[in-house]
Amino acid sequence: MKTLCGADCTNCGYGKENGCNGCVATNGCPFGKKCFIYDYIKTGGINAYEQFKQTLINEFNGLSISGMPKITELYAMSGASVNLAYPMPNGEYTKLLDDKNMYLCNQIECEFDDGTSGRCFGLVAGMDFLLVAEYGENGSDAELVTYKRR
To answer: Which residues of 112-134 are buried (b: 16+ CB within 10 A; e: fewer)?
Structure first.
């Protein structure tokens, strides 16, 4: 599958299971929804996309979340890969992302990890938001750290 952004579509289990042909073959709609990353590259070019990613990286690093190391990269991933359920104040769990959208993401180990808990931070960005979560192995015990409109 051919992509504009460099995403590793060969390792996307969600795409394989759902007949995805990649963004180039689908004109930026790999899961039936328009991909903002594809549109960004088609409109402004790869250099503008790289600048946009750097802006997002700077915004994530500017959040100054305790225990979260600085990041240097974001990767294109399907929502199905990063859409965790978070506990809400009413005791119910809810997912905040769309499995069929693409996002810019990273996962980094918590600096305060004691070696037994394996806590990580998951960072997810769309055109208009930043999301940071903390969770255990395989996304267990997910906690929403911040959701910020941009």
So the answer is: eeeeeeebbbbbbbbeeebbbbb
List Cβ neighbours of 42 (8 Å cut-off, separation of 6 or more): 4, 28
Q: Which residues lie below 8 Å from residue 128, measured CB to CB, with a gap of 6+?
A: 149, 150
* pLDDT single digits (tens) 61-98: 999 999 999 999 999 988 999 999 999 999 999 999 99
Q: How far is CA 41 from the centre of its chain?
A: 17
* 19 phi-psi bin (left φ>0, alpha ψ -120 to 50, beta other): left
d(CA 30, CA 115): 38
